[in-house]
Design a protein that fits this description.
heterodimer, A: 115 residues, mainly beta, 7-stranded mixed β-sheet, 4-stranded antiparallel β-sheet, 11 strands, 0% helix, globular, B: 113 residues, 5-stranded antiparallel β-sheet
Protein backbone atom coordinates (compact mmCIF):
# COMPACT_ATOMS: atom_id res chain seq x y z
CA UNK A 1 0.00 0.00 0.00
CA UNK A 2 1.19 3.47 -0.77
CA UNK A 3 0.05 6.97 0.05
CA UNK A 4 -3.10 7.43 2.12
CA UNK A 5 -5.72 4.69 2.21
CA UNK A 6 -9.25 4.82 3.56
CA UNK A 7 -11.76 2.09 4.39
CA UNK A 8 -14.52 1.52 3.71
CA UNK A 9 -14.89 3.36 0.43
CA UNK A 10 -18.68 3.39 0.73
CA UNK A 11 -20.86 3.15 3.83
CA UNK A 12 -24.62 3.21 4.28
CA UNK A 13 -25.88 3.39 7.84
CA UNK A 14 -29.04 4.07 9.75
CA UNK A 15 -29.33 6.87 12.26
CA UNK A 16 -29.02 4.51 15.22
CA UNK A 17 -25.96 2.62 13.98
CA UNK A 18 -22.40 2.90 15.22
CA UNK A 19 -19.66 2.65 12.61
CA UNK A 20 -16.04 3.70 12.19
CA UNK A 21 -14.05 5.09 9.30
CA UNK A 22 -10.39 4.13 9.05
CA UNK A 23 -7.48 6.00 7.52
CA UNK A 24 -3.90 4.81 7.19
CA UNK A 25 -0.95 6.75 5.83
CA UNK A 26 2.17 5.03 4.49
CA UNK A 27 4.21 8.21 4.04
CA UNK A 28 5.89 8.50 7.43
CA UNK A 29 4.03 11.73 8.17
CA UNK A 30 3.37 13.11 11.64
CA UNK A 31 0.06 14.91 11.13
CA UNK A 32 -3.34 13.61 10.04
CA UNK A 33 -6.62 15.30 9.19
CA UNK A 34 -10.32 14.59 8.71
CA UNK A 35 -12.25 16.70 6.19
CA UNK A 36 -15.93 16.66 5.24
CA UNK A 37 -17.09 17.38 1.70
CA UNK A 38 -20.83 17.96 1.35
CA UNK A 39 -22.62 18.66 -1.88
CA UNK A 40 -22.33 22.29 -2.96
CA UNK A 41 -20.14 23.27 0.00
CA UNK A 42 -16.37 23.73 0.25
CA UNK A 43 -14.29 21.08 1.94
CA UNK A 44 -14.41 21.62 5.70
CA UNK A 45 -11.67 20.71 8.13
CA UNK A 46 -13.06 18.64 11.02
CA UNK A 47 -10.09 17.47 13.09
CA UNK A 48 -6.32 17.77 13.09
CA UNK A 49 -3.88 15.47 14.87
CA UNK A 50 -0.25 16.47 15.11
CA UNK A 51 2.12 13.96 16.72
CA UNK A 52 -0.96 11.96 17.75
CA UNK A 53 -2.40 14.84 19.74
CA UNK A 54 -5.61 16.53 18.67
CA UNK A 55 -4.74 20.14 17.98
CA UNK A 56 -7.89 21.36 16.27
CA UNK A 57 -11.56 20.53 16.52
CA UNK A 58 -13.69 22.78 14.35
CA UNK A 59 -16.87 22.72 16.44
CA UNK A 60 -17.78 19.29 15.15
CA UNK A 61 -20.83 17.63 16.80
CA UNK A 62 -20.02 15.00 19.41
CA UNK A 63 -21.63 12.30 17.27
CA UNK A 64 -18.28 12.36 15.43
CA UNK A 65 -15.43 11.07 17.59
CA UNK A 66 -11.88 10.91 16.23
CA UNK A 67 -9.12 8.62 17.44
CA UNK A 68 -5.44 8.63 16.54
CA UNK A 69 -3.73 5.63 18.17
CA UNK A 70 -0.40 6.23 16.38
CA UNK A 71 1.03 8.47 13.69
CA UNK A 72 -0.02 6.13 10.87
CA UNK A 73 -3.65 5.51 11.77
CA UNK A 74 -6.68 7.73 12.19
CA UNK A 75 -10.25 6.72 12.92
CA UNK A 76 -13.55 8.55 12.86
CA UNK A 77 -16.15 6.90 15.06
CA UNK A 78 -19.75 7.62 14.06
CA UNK A 79 -22.77 7.39 16.37
CA UNK A 80 -26.43 8.41 15.92
CA UNK A 81 -25.77 10.40 12.77
CA UNK A 82 -28.29 12.56 10.92
CA UNK A 83 -29.15 12.43 7.22
CA UNK A 84 -27.38 15.79 6.75
CA UNK A 85 -24.14 14.06 7.76
CA UNK A 86 -24.17 12.23 4.44
CA UNK A 87 -21.01 13.37 2.64
CA UNK A 88 -17.60 12.36 1.37
CA UNK A 89 -15.18 12.09 4.29
CA UNK A 90 -11.57 12.64 3.34
CA UNK A 91 -8.45 11.87 5.31
CA UNK A 92 -5.13 13.60 4.70
CA UNK A 93 -1.63 13.58 6.11
CA UNK A 94 1.40 15.85 6.08
CA UNK A 95 4.82 16.16 7.60
CA UNK A 96 4.82 19.12 9.94
CA UNK A 97 8.28 20.58 10.11
CA UNK A 98 9.93 22.96 12.52
CA UNK A 99 9.58 25.66 9.87
CA UNK A 100 5.91 24.98 9.33
CA UNK A 101 3.50 22.48 7.73
CA UNK A 102 4.10 20.86 4.38
CA UNK A 103 1.97 19.64 1.51
CA UNK A 104 -1.07 17.56 2.43
CA UNK A 105 -1.75 14.25 0.74
CA UNK A 106 -5.32 12.99 0.56
CA UNK A 107 -6.92 9.57 0.61
CA UNK A 108 -9.69 8.51 -1.80
CA UNK A 109 -12.42 9.22 0.74
CA UNK A 110 -15.36 7.33 2.25
CA UNK A 111 -18.76 8.08 0.74
CA UNK A 112 -21.15 8.02 3.70
CA UNK A 113 -24.93 7.84 3.32
CA UNK A 114 -27.11 8.14 6.42
CA UNK A 115 -30.65 6.87 5.99
CA UNK B 1 -12.01 34.47 8.91
CA UNK B 2 -10.32 33.32 5.73
CA UNK B 3 -12.60 32.95 2.71
CA UNK B 4 -11.56 31.48 -0.62
CA UNK B 5 -13.48 32.12 -3.82
CA UNK B 6 -12.99 30.40 -7.15
CA UNK B 7 -14.14 31.77 -10.49
CA UNK B 8 -15.65 30.50 -12.69
CA UNK B 9 -17.74 27.85 -10.96
CA UNK B 10 -17.81 25.84 -14.17
CA UNK B 11 -15.98 26.00 -17.48
CA UNK B 12 -16.46 24.07 -20.71
CA UNK B 13 -13.84 24.35 -23.45
CA UNK B 14 -12.87 22.52 -26.61
CA UNK B 15 -9.76 20.39 -26.59
CA UNK B 16 -6.53 22.28 -27.23
CA UNK B 17 -7.53 25.57 -25.62
CA UNK B 18 -5.39 27.32 -23.05
CA UNK B 19 -7.38 28.27 -19.98
CA UNK B 20 -7.11 30.12 -16.68
CA UNK B 21 -8.78 29.31 -13.38
CA UNK B 22 -8.95 31.99 -10.74
CA UNK B 23 -8.73 31.87 -6.95
CA UNK B 24 -8.98 34.75 -4.50
CA UNK B 25 -8.59 34.80 -0.73
CA UNK B 26 -9.46 37.43 1.84
CA UNK B 27 -6.58 37.13 4.32
CA UNK B 28 -3.15 37.56 2.76
CA UNK B 29 -1.36 36.12 5.81
CA UNK B 30 -0.99 32.68 4.28
CA UNK B 31 1.79 30.13 4.57
CA UNK B 32 1.25 28.54 1.17
CA UNK B 33 -1.39 27.85 -1.48
CA UNK B 34 -2.19 24.52 -3.09
CA UNK B 35 -4.08 23.61 -6.24
CA UNK B 36 -5.79 20.22 -6.24
CA UNK B 37 -7.63 18.13 -8.78
CA UNK B 38 -10.64 16.01 -7.83
CA UNK B 39 -12.24 13.46 -10.13
CA UNK B 40 -15.92 12.63 -9.48
CA UNK B 41 -16.39 10.72 -6.22
CA UNK B 42 -12.65 10.53 -5.63
CA UNK B 43 -10.08 12.06 -3.31
CA UNK B 44 -7.85 15.02 -4.03
CA UNK B 45 -4.64 14.97 -6.03
CA UNK B 46 -2.19 17.76 -5.31
CA UNK B 47 -1.13 19.55 -8.49
CA UNK B 48 1.01 22.45 -7.37
CA UNK B 49 2.05 24.05 -4.11
CA UNK B 50 3.29 27.64 -3.97
CA UNK B 51 5.02 28.91 -0.85
CA UNK B 52 4.04 32.41 0.27
CA UNK B 53 7.50 33.68 -0.73
CA UNK B 54 7.16 32.35 -4.29
CA UNK B 55 5.45 33.89 -7.29
CA UNK B 56 4.80 30.82 -9.39
CA UNK B 57 5.23 27.08 -9.83
CA UNK B 58 5.17 24.98 -12.97
CA UNK B 59 4.52 21.32 -13.59
CA UNK B 60 4.20 20.13 -17.18
CA UNK B 61 1.26 21.94 -18.80
CA UNK B 62 0.26 23.56 -15.51
CA UNK B 63 1.46 26.89 -14.20
CA UNK B 64 0.23 28.46 -10.98
CA UNK B 65 0.93 32.03 -9.93
CA UNK B 66 0.50 33.73 -6.59
CA UNK B 67 0.06 37.41 -5.77
CA UNK B 68 -0.18 37.37 -2.00
CA UNK B 69 -0.61 41.10 -1.57
CA UNK B 70 -3.73 41.17 -3.73
CA UNK B 71 -4.99 37.81 -2.48
CA UNK B 72 -5.06 36.12 -5.87
CA UNK B 73 -3.80 32.98 -7.56
CA UNK B 74 -4.31 31.64 -11.06
CA UNK B 75 -3.93 28.17 -12.48
CA UNK B 76 -3.03 28.16 -16.16
CA UNK B 77 -3.59 24.97 -18.14
CA UNK B 78 -1.97 24.86 -21.56
CA UNK B 79 -3.27 22.83 -24.49
CA UNK B 80 -6.17 21.33 -22.55
CA UNK B 81 -7.11 17.67 -23.06
CA UNK B 82 -10.29 15.69 -22.28
CA UNK B 83 -8.36 13.97 -19.48
CA UNK B 84 -8.08 17.33 -17.74
CA UNK B 85 -11.82 17.26 -17.07
CA UNK B 86 -12.24 17.37 -13.28
CA UNK B 87 -12.95 19.75 -10.43
CA UNK B 88 -10.04 22.03 -9.57
CA UNK B 89 -9.76 23.20 -5.99
CA UNK B 90 -7.69 26.01 -4.56
CA UNK B 91 -6.74 25.95 -0.87
CA UNK B 92 -4.74 28.32 1.32
CA UNK B 93 -2.80 27.31 4.39
CA UNK B 94 -2.54 29.64 7.33
CA UNK B 95 0.73 29.98 9.16
CA UNK B 96 0.40 27.58 12.06
CA UNK B 97 2.65 24.76 13.17
CA UNK B 98 0.20 22.32 11.61
CA UNK B 99 -1.75 22.44 8.39
CA UNK B 100 -5.09 24.22 8.32
CA UNK B 101 -6.31 24.42 4.74
CA UNK B 102 -9.23 26.60 3.72
CA UNK B 103 -10.75 25.51 0.43
CA UNK B 104 -12.66 27.25 -2.31
CA UNK B 105 -15.74 25.63 -3.81
CA UNK B 106 -13.87 24.60 -6.92
CA UNK B 107 -14.14 25.06 -10.66
CA UNK B 108 -15.70 22.21 -12.63
CA UNK B 109 -13.76 21.90 -15.87
CA UNK B 110 -15.04 20.00 -18.91
CA UNK B 111 -12.78 19.65 -21.92
CA UNK B 112 -14.67 18.21 -24.89
CA UNK B 113 -13.04 16.55 -27.87
Amino acid sequence: ETGVTQTPRHLVMGMTNKKSLKCEQHLGHNAMYWYKQSAKKPLELMFVYSLEERVENNSVPSRFSPECPNSSHLFLHLHTLQPEDSALYLCASSQDLAGGPSEQFFGPGTRLTVL
Amino acid sequence: KQEVTQIPAALSVPEGENLVLNCSFTDSAIYNLQWFRQDPGKGLTSLLLIQSSQREQTSGRLNASLDKSSGRSTLYIAASQPGDSATYLCAVLRGTSYGKLTFGQGTILTVHP
